[in-house]
Specification:
Blueprint lengths: L6 E7 L11 H9 L1 E6 L9 H12 L3 H4 L13 H4 L5 E5 L2 H9 L3 E4 L10 H11 L2 E2 L2 E2 L7 E6 L6 H27 L1 H4 L2 E7 L35 E2 L2 E2 L9 E6 L14 H7 L4 E3 L3 H8 L9
Parallel strand pairs: 1-7, 1-8, 2-12, 3-4, 3-7
Antiparallel strand pairs: 2-11, 5-6, 8-11, 9-10
Helix pairs in contact: 1-7, 6-7
């Protein structure tokens, strides 16, 4: 545990997990130094509206799924803000998606257009600089006060058609460059890397019913399959001491967390489902518990889990 609260930068790639290639060195470098694992989603009825599907997945990640049931862009229920839920946490949501921006603002996020941080012709380190500045990291130093405690960056959408696949490839390359700039800046300044808690969350996006790959069940050691009934259930399969009946059994989110001297490095070398399955240190937690782990590092919530 750090002697000062961390400040969190979460980079979330919707529908981009399948687009990560070996040439995306920076993404793999982060996986190699971080603590990796899976986030289990609920098995929801597929949505015909892509934007609605993105909002529903994000809502699970932010433990605000009930709020998303009002429909995209609607405001029917009173929803506790992040500030009330997490001890005054100040959070920003960076995205180009208007529905996600509206949903985030409803939860208490300060909305920022991603395009406002990506100026034509400007190098990628400019965007990394702007994101770190929002968290109080500037000129290699950490200010006592920051505009935000947490900055959540959303990149990407679903990629099922040829054009969307090209878009997903471009978004993944964009994310790879952004991660590289953040890692490079952090490596140069100990004042930043000791306080910055960096998370990368990669989603497979909309999943076809016939897609039966990337199963959570594959995480169990097949050599001991005869003893599987003796193994305790992981936390992702339980809630309130009872079994979760609606856990999606395929295509979980991939997550990497890194902070110098805080996160524990595992044996993962690349950001792939198979490498995570064999070598990750965190295994699986429910997606709706992820934010509580981050909030604890920011001294904004009690410790979650062991």
């Amino acid at each position: 545990m750090a002697d000062k609260p961390s400040r969190a930068l979460i980079v979330y790639g919707y529908g981009l997990a399948g687009s990560v290639k070996p040439l995306h060195y920076n993404i793999h470098d982060l996986a190699a130094i971080g603590c990796c694992g899976f986030l289990a989603l609920e098995d929801l009825v597929p949505s015909d509206n892509e934007d609605e599907g993105i909002v529903r997945e994000l809502a699970q990640l932010l433990d605000a799924y009930e709020a998303s049931q009002d429909g995209v862009g609607e405001h029917h229920k009173t929803v506790p803000t992040f500030s009330k839920r997490f001890m005054g946490m100040k959070a920003a949501l960076v995205t180009n998606n208007s529905d996600i921006k509206l949903f985030g603002q409803r939860l208490g996020f300060f909305g920022i257009e991603l395009n406002n941080l990506v100026h034509a012709g400007a190098p990628m380190n400019f965007m990394a600089f702007e994101l770190l500045k929002l968290l109080g990291f500037e000129d290699g130093k950490t200010s006592d006060e920051s505009q935000f405690d947490l900055v959540f960056v959303h990149i990407g959408s679903n990629g099922k058609t040829a054009n969307q696949e090209v878009s997903a490839a471009k978004d993944t390359e964009f994310m790879n460059k952004l991660v590289g700039e953040i890692l490079q800046t952090s490596s140069q300044y100990s004042a930043i890397r000791s306080r910055l808690h960096l998370s990368l969350v990669m989603s497979y996006g909309a999943i076809a019913e016939e897609d039966q790959g990337l199963l959570l069940s594959s995480l169990h050691d097949e050599r001991n399959s005869n003893l599987s009934l003796l193994f305790p259930r992981q936390s992702y399969a339980l809630i309130g001491g009872k079994f979760r009946s609606n856990v999606r059994k395929r295509c979980p989110l991939l997550v990497v967390q890194w902070q110098e001297a805080v996160t524990r490095k595992d044996n993962t070398e690349m950001l792939t489902f198979d490498d995570f399955r064999k070598n990750s240190g965190s295994l699986v937690i429910p997606a709706d518990r992820f934010l509580y782990e981050i909030a604890f590092k920011l001294w904004k919530a009690p410790k979650y889990g062991a």
